[in-house]
Amino acid sequence: MRWFGAGPGGAGEDGAPDERAGLVTVYGSEDGPAAGERPPTAGTAYAAAPLGGAALGTHPAPSRAIPRSALRTVGAGACLTPRHVLTCAHVVNLAVGRDKLAYAHPGAVELTVGFPGADGVARSTARLTHWIPPRAEQSPERHLAVPHGARRWRGDLAVLELTCDPPPGVAPLRWAPMTGSQSVRARYGTGDPEHTAYGRVASFEDGIGYVHGGPTGAAIRGGYSGGPVWSVADQRAVGLVAAMVTHGAGPYDPTMTTRLSWSLSWQAVKDELTAAGADGLLPECADQVHRQRAPDRLREDLRLLLDRALPDEAHVRKHATRFAERCLLPHPEDGSLPSLEEWTEVLLTVERAVPALAEVLAPYDPAHARKLRDLARLTPRLTAHWMSPWEERALLQLLDTLPDDVRRRVPEATRSAFPYPLPDEVVDATGLSDPKVFAAYTRRWVAALECRAGDGRQVPAGTPGVPALLRAVEFVAALSNPLDRRTELRQWNERMAAHLGIDGATLADRRADADQWAQAAVSAPPRLVVELTGGTGHGRTRRYDAGFWTDVGDGRLQPAAGAGADPLAPAEIVKILHKHLDRLAGASVGQAWPTVELIVEHGDLEIDLDSLGAADAGPLPPKVVGTRYPMVLRCPSIRRLADSDGVWRRRWRALGRKSAMRLDDTHDDPGRVAGLLDEDLDASVVVVGTPHGTRARTATWCLACGVPVLLWDRAEHAPDGVDTFRLEPPSRVHRLPEAVREYRAKARSSPDEHRARPVLVWDDPGRPLPLTAHLTDPSERAEL
């Protein structure tokens, strides 16, 4: 028996926890309504979960007593990381009272889970973070629901994040590839030994393994789904239980389906998680572990450091328990001690183990603690995780307490901290006002920046570089107000810099960069949002129902006064615009200048409010709204009609990475335009140069394909007239609304030289729309 990993669930021969230590029970309410169970049909595979699932809302936090009689086991899960649980999507469906194979995302659900391998009875809650729905097996697409009567399916995975640390005795499983003829076992969700089902993988192909159960003992049935399929020989999990196979008239009969089930292989699970953007949660596979066990320089360096830092039994006894607790590793309390060989293995295979040991040693042996930090920071196999678990948790807790106005600007601060492009998970600012969305974002943010070794700036000779994460934290801290948040983030940075041996002057230099940026930067520009609906008439005599909202830059839209309930003509709308914009401009600070967002229907994409002056100007020069303020269009109704919100957000995240796509007179067919855009799902800016009279129609096709930024010329002149207005390079595309405003001003002063009359659609997912823009039924709007 090995010391680390030898918890209540037992351990494998190499010290890895067995499946009970990583098994999770997924509960539903005992008295919940049935989940819409479909009747069995001949030759159909059914999810191995209890019939008639349970409706489940948010259960009480772990600190409150949850009566055992109020819960029922609907399935199982497997610990993927110390805070993440992998299970089947149909187990989540059953837990929340839906049809087992329901495809749609269940929303922000929170489930009650249990830990059979914990020390004593333990339950917690876990929130859904990744949803990979069950989908049709043979479809080349990834968005087709499982048809009725299907024998098997794809996808069917969900990742849950625990709302608190797991109890002692619980540990992430190790994984190995599934192969044919493996002897395996699976446990019921509660982990009861008498319900352990044994069998073998009789056939394995295309990511799915069919398991034939043993002739005696328990058989896989309801309540096993989502639990690990455990290879007895490898002492590793090799897949997840997915479904048992029912019998009927054909193609299966009772003699063929007795104790027959099928499972998702670890290879298929890895592929699905990677495609869903959850590859950062994947643990190392057994083949990688075996390669790490081969003699190598890192192993030798670690063993030498341990020999010197833990020279005798007293030192090992002093630090072993504290180290295990920091790494969330189970450990015996019988007075036994780990061997240095086992400790070396843990440092090589357990995430953040090296910095955790450095953290434990630092108060007593700072020299060896520094050497361990250097290994974690400089060794390619370790650099993705150079923070200890406690240090990572402290940073995440600080970020989670940031005020709402700072949360929305974290992507902006991060972009400003680095001159090079950053991954989507860092720059995506969608929905960050929601605390749950922001909590998930900060975890992606930390993971993406921690693996970047340096911030690209020079440091004094002989001193370590500044990790990218520390520079980003300085920029976020510079935004933070009240000052206590700024102080806490900077203190965290200072502690980490001291641990890593970073020169104090170097960190001060990064802090000065951040302060300089924060003093020059401003919050998101204030804006006036105008929604125009129900247009009647033609041209400048057309009248609209108009709604007005103001946003001072904090993302909160407040209704603004209009002109009553009567429809308004364009000139009347412009007059109201100027009244609100003048107030916003007077209240703006620094360079934050108000923008105008017009929400229009697809038939009004060429509305020319930007060129109209305020009525009744008298002898004074007319104020033209589009030359004084950036004015952009948004048309959410097309996106929602085409169900293109997902690709719209993806394209926005890619903004600035590529040059604009240009459409000309050859793009005269919606299929041709859609095909071109589907070839490149990162195309985010399109310049429409089709013949005059067709540009708004072509723009509508692009909006249906989720394009967030569109530019075209509404003027009646040669088709190449739009070329008189050139886009900025991709890295400066975020200036496009201001660049269009400047061009409109030049066109007003020099119309012969600047002939284009640009129309700009700028549909930023990070800038919320008024609620009415989400409604399409006029009766709903009236009721609201």
UniProtKB/TrEMBL annotation:
<feature type="region of interest" description="Disordered">
    <location>
        <begin position="744"/>
        <end position="784"/>
    </location>
</feature>
<dbReference type="Pfam" id="PF20028">
    <property type="entry name" value="VMAP-C"/>
</dbReference>
<feature type="domain" description="vWA-MoxR associated protein C-terminal">
    <location>
        <begin position="543"/>
        <end position="765"/>
    </location>
</feature>
<dbReference type="InterPro" id="IPR009003">
    <property type="entry name" value="Peptidase_S1_PA"/>
</dbReference>
<feature type="compositionally biased region" description="Basic and acidic residues">
    <location>
        <begin position="744"/>
        <end position="756"/>
    </location>
</feature>
<dbReference type="InterPro" id="IPR045450">
    <property type="entry name" value="VMAP_C"/>
</dbReference>
<protein>
    <recommendedName>
        <fullName>vWA-MoxR associated protein C-terminal domain-containing protein</fullName>
    </recommendedName>
</protein>
<dbReference type="Pfam" id="PF13365">
    <property type="entry name" value="Trypsin_2"/>
</dbReference>
